[in-house]
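Sharing a chain and its predicted structure for anyone who wants a worked example. Both blocks are below, sequence first, tokens second.
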Amino acid sequence: MAPQSRAPLPAVLLTRPEAQGARFAAALAAALGPVRIVTAPLMVPHYLSPAIPLRPAALVFTSETGVEGFRRLRAPALEGVVRAWCVGNRTARAARAAGLDARSADGDAEALIEAILAAGETGPLLHLRGEESRGAVAARLSASGLMSAEAVVYDQRPQPLSPEAVTLLSEGTPVIAPLFSPRTARLLGAELARAGLAPPLRVAAMSAAVAEAAAALPPHRLRIAERPDAEALLEVVKALFDAEAEA
């Protein structure tokens, strides 16, 4: 009797911006061993120089890219500011590398707001964010009585799937797609429609909001991370990979 041929192992498609995608690819390679990883960022950051609406006592960051936007600013109103509130540990590490005394909420926007209010912060605060941002952090802090403002320091501009990604998605091989934001999920759906592709995607979603946006793809399988961070999403990718390997 001829031996049964095994189904090909799934590949991984990374669509987040280049720097973060490269870091996640390295973590995947360390966790999964030899696996085909195709990196195809669907967004690229474009940094801005907005007017700063107030002189803050502390800064608020909900992304590492926001910290990079701060590094690039040349704003007199920000001179001497050393304190920062950060949504998660990676963002806090980036803020410390930028010379700030950073505290991490180790969570999402909800956890960040709760941490700031629980600490008795007096402000005023300035949220340096991207054009698209969830959570209405500054508005909700202001509504709680803490003077807060925001400034948009970067925009994530869409870019098409790379030829290598289109080739991968045309092969019929199972593809695991870790998705970090609802916008990335929507951009991936638009790119698949533009290319006339309907690949058998296995989606690892960072959060329920990402999963909701990804439902339109539609995925062959979809799992949601237990926490909105890269480490938890990596666990979901590993679980999807193991499920495919055992199928």
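Comments welcome. The chain has two domains: 11-42+159-246, 45-157.
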